[in-house]
Specification:
Length: 75
């Protein structure tokens, strides 16, 4: 899974949440959070935790479908 880092950054700013706080909320390492922000592919476990945290519909909004070479199946 690759995430649009700028969209995630805006979300965290709205929630007044740091990268560390977000990592703690998801139960992932800070390194994985940094990879999310950089648009890097993350581990399956991280992707599952991200999806559990946001739900499928919201996660689909964050995924960089173009970078994955796929069409958003929800829209």
């Amino acid at each position: 899974m690759k995430i649009k880092g700028e969209k995630l950054s805006l979300h965290l700013q709205e929630k007044d949440m740091t990268h560390s706080e977000f990592a703690n909320e998801l139960g992932i390492s800070l390194l994985e959070v940094e990879w999310l922000f950089a648009g890097e592919a993350v581990a399956v476990d991280t992707a599952k935790k991200f999806t559990d945290y946001f739900g499928a519909d919201k996660t689909a909004e964050f995924i960089d479908w173009e970078a994955l070479g796929k069409k958003n199946p929800l829209g």
